[in-house]
């Protein structure tokens, strides 16, 4: 998988560069505190902001409000009018520098104040990097994209880089997809990446016996809110447990090791390449660490942008 193919597809995009720097500089967008957003109050999360994992298949995840609005608009007699209303709301949201997403407040010293999850940018979605494709989803590794080559970002900024392209951090639901990403890491000598994996330890995760104990059952994919299998078992349909058997404390992951050092919880899921002489494996890592990312198409964001931009080719 040469870089040439990639470079060709994604020749440096001055606008994208400018956009990313703006996001980086903008304290309203770029704060670590938005991790708190996930449990936040319902209606503002229609753009796919994260929330606690789905309880059951029937339990409609928070974050589907937007789709419901759109679906409703398509079936009622006043379709045109409603579409106009929805479109205007969206236009306002996209036009305003401060998107209609909860501002997040944080009490923790390490967190930067007031960050948001980014909205998708239709032009960037249409020209998003497509390094490889698997089961209908496109993926890219940030270091292989010229405009992102030197980026090392914390977990939330990682999500936001992906989300502007109608993607999100990669989720590894199957062994096949996991092998694909492990291979990418191995063949390109990637030291580590962020994935979409997140511990449900924020507001909105309380009162969920199905997530207890947290270190075993509390993990989920923030891009689609699917739960991650129990951390201490080989997942159904897999031949191995992707969580590393070692780490800082020389015990199986997740180990929340940094908490013992500075009381920061290891709430985000990274793949590390032999950092602890343990091969390539999943690790719980504190979310402020800065790493390159692998992005994967987000059906939710692609559907949203295609529904709100008639004729757009994604
Ligand atoms: Ca996935
Ligand atoms: Ca760890």
UniProtKB/TrEMBL annotation:
Keywords tagged on the record: Disulfide bond
Protein name: C-type lectin domain-containing protein
Cross-referenced SMART domains: CLECT (SM00034)
TM helices/strands, residue ranges: none
Record-linked InterPro entries: C-type_lectin-like, C-type_lectin-like/link_sf, C-type_lectin_CS, CTDL_fold
Alphabetized CDD domains for the sequence: CLECT
Domain C-type lectin: 134-296
KW Disulfide bond (keyword) present: yes
Taxonomic lineage of the native organism: Eukaryota, Metazoa, Ecdysozoa, Arthropoda, Hexapoda
SUPFAM superfamilies: C-type lectin-like
Keyword Cell membrane: no
